[in-house]
Amino acid sequence: MSRRHYNLPPLTTLSAFEAAARHLSFKNAAVELSVTPGAVSHQIKALEGDLDTPLFQRKHRGVDLTEDGKALYDALSTSFGRISKTLSMIRDRSTAGKVTVGSTTAVAALWLSPAVIRFWRDIPEVNVDQLSQDRPFRDRPDVDFFIRYGRDSDPNLSHTPLFRDQLVPVGSPEMAERLADAGLEDLTSERLIHLESEDRTWTTWPEWFQQLGYNGTVPIESRVNSYSVALQLARKGAGLALGWQRLIQPMLQSGKLVPIGTHQVPAPNQFYLVGRPDDELSDSARALKNWIVQEVQEGSV
């Protein structure tokens, strides 16, 4: 192999080895590096030839590191980690004053966008990018943090509790007047607008009725995949939506939606700010995060 400064072999061989050693799998390393397992094997054989020592013990169902392999992996993982942190610091400086926050479309419309406007009044020099999607935020390194109902399955993410909501049926003013004294069985006779989401943490109509002790049939006649759509249908008198009372506070205050009856239950989960730990956030990202937490504590949402 041709040598460069620092007497290192080509970085492609080191990168392939580090990924294979971390996964203890040539196949999984290939998936991460977007190459074939054969290409990973070729790079590692080249590195082993250059070092004149085996780095892996090939087994029937996978591979293990040799002593030389363990020593090289420890050195590379430490070095790559330091390089990664340095690159993050450089990127943060190049994007100073910019924060990217994610949420569902409903959270963005009902809470986050108005909150960002209020934030800009206090701290106008920070630019905020919003990403709205009604599917989980997975593998999005460009997002500093996102607002989520319930905890994320990734244990490496930081979770900052915001609030626990109350769940209550909501509809148009006309429906609220007609159903003022409605019991649970009466509500099941109405068109219930069901939200279908990839995120299974959101409470459903059947779960809401079950928490109130109702074990009868809950019909499913109308489905939507957007909470914003469900609220608009309820607002127009087309059915009842399951209202997150604190989240939809602006629509309740304006009278566009009205709670139906007196039945309500506390949401099983809390809303969280989920994302990178504080020590990995830029000053701007921490400023927005702290501002959101303070606003929630003061009851603005």
From TrEMBL:
Residues 9-66 form the HTH lysR-type domain. One of its GO terms (biological process) is DNA-templated transcription. InterPro entries: LysR-type_TF_proteobact-type, LysR_HTH_N, LysR_subst-bd, WH-like_DNA-bd_sf, WH_DNA-bd_sf. The keyword Transcription applies. Keywords: DNA-binding, Transcription, Transcription regulation. It holds the Pfam family HTH_1. Belongs to the LysR transcriptional regulatory family. This is Gcv operon activator. It comes from Ruegeria atlantica. The lineage of its organism: Bacteria, Pseudomonadati, Pseudomonadota, Alphaproteobacteria, Rhodobacterales.
